[in-house]
Amino acid sequence: MPRMSKWYSFKSEQVDLAPEKAGAYQLAYKDVVVYIGSAESSIRSRLREHRKRKTFMKVTHFRFCKTDSEEARATEAKLCKEFVRKNGKLPRLQKAAPKDTRSYIDRLIYG
Predict the structure, then answer these.
(1) Long-range contact pairs involving 39-44 (C-beta distance under 8 Å, separation at least 24)
(2) The pTM is what?
């Protein structure tokens, strides 16, 4: 799995520096991850969309990892699975676990 970046402030000037690339990201309130998402084309655009929503008003930080657009959703699914394994539940603002878009054969071979 790609390595996550350091944590950045969820202020517009920091979001504007996020990559215009595909990838997965985590949003946090202080030091607690509250949402895990993915972007198939632009992490920056997705983060900007989240900043506009009331649901994410209390988010204080974000971090990301760049991936190929085909891997963005699978990376999000892996991050959610790992979060649940460690915490026993999904992040607070996560409505449902994403589906892993890889084929059954890929999951058997690569885990």
Answers:
(1) 39/72, 40/69, 40/72, 40/73, 41/69, 43/18, 43/19, 44/15, 44/16, 44/18, 44/19, 44/20
(2) 0.86
